[in-house]
Amino acid sequence: DLGFKAFKITLDVGFTCPNRDGFLGIGGCIYCNNKGFNPNSLQPARSIQQQLMEGSAALRKRYRVDRFIAYFQAFTNTYASVDKLKSIYDEVLEFKDVIGLSIGTRPDCLSEEIVDLIAEYRDKTYLWVEVGLQSARNETLRMINRGHDLHCFIDAVERLHKHKIRVCAHVIIGLPEETRNDVLFTAKTIADLGCEGLKIHPLHVIKDTVLAEKYDNNELKLLSLQEYASLVVDFLETIPPTIAIQRITAEGPADYHVAPDWCLDKQSVLKQIDLELENRMSYQGKEWLKQNNLCR
């Protein structure tokens, strides 16, 4: 909805997570080794300005673009005081050609004061808040050690929407013990809340995580590529066609990746999802439109 191309510069500004530092828990979610999800964590600490300069230079060279969205990805990017957050967000927006902010966080780190702060940027820049849900099933959230429940996510999204702030929900398909109905329940939850964006990740195993221990002990069943593609299409059919799909697969760095191998071939994953859509003669919103007595 920008009307022009803009690419994200991924930032690590030194935040941690309440599920890792002892406030809520220690060790984080069972799949989380943040180096696996954030390449910047593999490098020595760099200033915000250095990350912006290096990131924008690489994107200019590769894609010939000159407008960027600063993406606060690593850990929980609202887990600090209002004053500190304001200082960081302001510094980023002063960088030439940054036209937007995308703030990745947890639903339990969006207090009224922080939501009020973020709302101040709504009319100043192109703004998204990316909120991790992973699953709408409370039993799953406990199993993966998320440290929050579904109600917490619903409350956070509703408060962001009260300020007309765009929300991109993050979900994982293939979580332990989840059925197709559980995946559809998560999809319906996202649809009912009116989230404007969505990122879908396949469950994949990263080194040095609790999930890796379970995998090594044969306590974990992972999806095949075909199973993942089928569930992704189920998910897409269940949500409104207006939700912007910002990601539909993911993988960590090869050096940290354990399984499944198919995650590492992004193009094959995308092709399999396209094939599933074609075989079903389907599209995003197909079932949602039927349920709401609407036509495409």
Automatic annotation (TrEMBL):
One GO MF term on file is:
catalytic activity
Keyword Iron in the entry? The reply is yes
Q: Which cofactor does it need?
A: [4Fe-4S] cluster
Q: Give the UniProt keywords, A-Z.
A: 4Fe-4S, Iron, Iron-sulfur, Metal-binding, S-adenosyl-L-methionine
Q: Name one Pfam family in it.
A: Radical_SAM
The signal peptide stretch is none
Q: What is this protein called in UniProt? A: TIGR01212 family radical SAM protein
Query: Could you tell me which species this protein originates from?
Result: Candidatus Schekmanbacteria bacterium RBG_13_48_7
